[in-house]
Design goal:
- The protein has helices spanning 25-41, 46-51, 123-126, 128-136, and strands at 7-10, 55-65, 74-84, 88-97, 103-114.
- It is of the alpha+beta class.
- It is built from 4 helices and 5 strands; from the N terminus they run E-H-H-E-E-E-E-H-H.
- The protein has one domain (7-136): Roll (Thiol Ester Dehydrase, Chain A).
- The protein is globular and about 50 Å long.
- A hairpin with a 5-residue loop joins strand 4 and strand 5.
């Protein structure tokens, strides 16, 4: 398993609402940003996977808000593959305030793997190199292997 750089985001003004806190819809975007960054770091970016004929479809997303993020703050978004069988995958997320370590938000996204025609793909059978990499990270705390 290779070292992973934690995904950091600086809260932009446009992401906040009239109360000065991050609008709830932005956390789902941050989850995607962190997931895309993670996949790039482990060598299977969305671009590369699509070139190989694989799509990672979002089946669902959820988010639980613990404490607000505010304009200008830096947050760390930590993805973690919690379930993976080569057909479906669940990724959980923690959003943490970088300055004080406060847990701001938790959430998860559920995915399935398809071909470019949106037909299910069995990654373990058809793409064993991808299966192995993703499987190696199931339940891995990337904070422990971060740079």
């Amino acid at each position: 398993m290779q070292k992973i750089k934690l995904y950091e985001h600086r809260v932009s003004y446009y992401e906040t609402d009239q109360m000065g806190i991050v609008h709830h819809s932005n956390y789902i975007r941050w989850f995607e940003d962190a997931r895309v960054d993670f996949l790039e770091q482990v060598g299977f970016s969305y671009d590369k996977m699509e070139d190989m004929g694989i799509m990672i479809i979002v089946l669902g997303a959820s988010c639980e808000y613990k404490s607000p993020a505010r304009f200008g703050e830096r947050v760390i978004i930590i993805p973690k593959i919690t379930e993976y069988n080569g057909f479906k995958m669940t990724v959980s997320y923690e959003v943490i305030n970088k300055a004080d370590g406060t847990l701001l938000t938790t959430g998860e996204t559920k995915h399935c793997f398809t071909d470019l025609d949106l037909k299910p793909v069995r990654v373990k059978r058809d793409f064993p190199e991808i299966y192995k990499v993703f499987n190696d990270y199931v339940n891995a705390d990337i904070r422990e292997i971060s740079e």
